[in-house]
Structures are given as structure tokens and as C-alpha cells.
Amino acid sequence: MPDKITIPLLQQMKRDGGKIAGVVAWDTPMAKIADRAGVDLVSVGDSVGVNLWGHDDPLQVTMDEMLIVCKAVRRGVTRALVSCDLPYGPVQQSVDAALAASRRLMREGGADMIKVDAAADYPDAVRALVEAGVPVFAQFGLTPQTAAKFGIPYSAQNSPQAQAAPEAAAKLVEEAKLLEACGACMLDFTNSGPVAGAAVTQAVSIPVLGGFGGGPWLDGRVRLAHTAIGYHDKWLDSKTDTYVNTAKAALGAFQALIADVRAGKQIKG
């Protein structure tokens, strides 16, 4: 296992047929655990707003908030690559704003690379960032914001039919090639599905990873750390398998703590 993961190393893993493993994390302890486990990538996602802070929409996350979580993860990671999301706003505003924000996330936040959401809609920004020395992890695929341009109804965006649609697959391959040509070092393919996912992975030479809607047809997977360990109140009643159910373990621990306090016993830890 290498001492330090680099972008060229991940690109070589694709050429060798290896699979890249990543997690999304937002705090120092989780980052330390993931890094020690041996993940290749820790992605600091703007999903922190919905999954940790109770926001209704990831678009509510600000640049200052992304800096806070990026710094926290950077403090916990010594081996893996750290990618940080550009929040909504800078890319949509202008290329200059995107460049200034990316430089802040790298200089102040310690990010090794920057993830640009809906990157295929902003090829000029991707190109400018790369030319300025910013490694870009380019996100694209089927989302509520992009499904319409592929002629897919919002309600069907995650369906196997949408993911297998030949016209959608062809356009997604086009977008992937465009992003590679713009200089992106990796792609984050949302809702890839086995048809479009396999086609895109074969069409480009850079690694294609996926979180939601991904699968073994990609070069690797990125999973929310909190999902992998079942750390969310929704896992208390969920029947879905996780690698461990931290929510249920925490519930039991808190109930035992309460019982000890009420009984006048010394508490543990």
C-alpha cells in the first residue's frame, strides 16, 4: 500500500484494472478512520448541508462552510487524496469566481483537487481551472437538474429505463469525452447505470467513479461515510444493509447511559 495517494496513481489504477475506493466525510475523526482504513479518496461534499446540518437543499451550503469542513478533513488525512466540492455559486457566477474559490479551497482548506458539479455545463470553467493548475474532479450525469436535457422526466431520472436509454448513454459519453478534453483528472458519474456507466468508463482514459446510482461497471465507488456505517436516525428503522448500524448501537448506548444515571451508577468512559 503506497504511503501517499496521487492523481497519477489513481489514473494508473484504472489502466491496471484496479478499483478506486473513496468515502465522503466532513469531520476530522471520520477522516482519520477512513484514511487509516486505506481509502484512496476522501471527498468533502456539499452534501454535508442535507446529511449533517439538516438543510433542505445542498445549494444552501456556503463557501465559508465548505472551507470549515475541508479544513477539518484535511487535518485527519495524511495518505488519501482530499477532494473538496465547490459550493453552488462561484461556477455559476463566472470563471474568475470559480478560480478564486478553488484557490481558496486548495490554499486555505488543503484540498488536493476540486470537484465541480454539473461540470459538463461549464466546460470553460473546467478548462480554466486546469490551465491554472487546479486538478478538477468533474461531476456529471443524471440529476434533477440535468435529466431534462436528456428528455427524461424528473420522476424517472433514477429508473433503469432512464439509465439504459441509448440516446442518454450517447450524450453522456459525449459529455465525458468533453470533460476529459478540458483536462479533468477524474469523473464523478451520478446515476450511471450499467449501460451508460460501462460505455463512459470505456470511452475515457481517466478514472470514472460513482456514488449514488453507481456500480461495479465503474472504475471505483465513493460512498457517504455516514451511510457506510449507518450513522443517521433513518437507520434506526431501516431494513437496508449497511456495513455496521451505528445508529442502533448509539441508541442502545444512550439508553444504557440514561439508565445508569437514573440508577445513580458511575457512567462509563
Report on the structure:
This protein folds into two domains: 7-228, Phosphoenolpyruvate-binding domains (TIM Barrel); 230-269, no CATH class. Helix 9 (166-181) packs parallel to helix 10 (194-203). The model has no long low-confidence stretch (mean pLDDT 92). It is an alpha/beta fold and 269 residues long. It has an eight-stranded parallel β-barrel, surrounded by seven helices. The radius of gyration is 19 Å and the shape is globular. It has helices at 7-16, 28-37, 48-51, 63-76, 90-93, 95-107, 123-131, 160-164, 166-181, 194-203, 225-228, 246-262; strands spanning 20-24, 41-44, 81-85, 113-116, 136-141, 186-190, 208-210, 220-224. The longest helix is centred in the C-terminal third of the chain and has 17 residues, at 246-262. Helix content is 43%, strand content 14%. The protein is built from twelve helices and eight strands. The chain starts with 6 loop residues before the first helix and ends in a 7-residue tail after the last helix.
Annotate the secondary structure layout.
Elements: H1 7-16, E1 20-24, H2 28-37, E2 41-44, H3 48-51, H4 63-76, E3 81-85, H5 90-93, H6 95-107, E4 113-116, H7 123-131, E5 136-141, H8 160-164, H9 166-181, E6 186-190, H10 194-203, E7 208-210, E8 220-224, H11 225-228, H12 246-262
Parallel strand pairs: 1-2, 1-8, 2-3, 3-4, 4-5, 5-6, 6-7, 7-8
Helix pairs in contact: 2-4, 6-7, 9-10
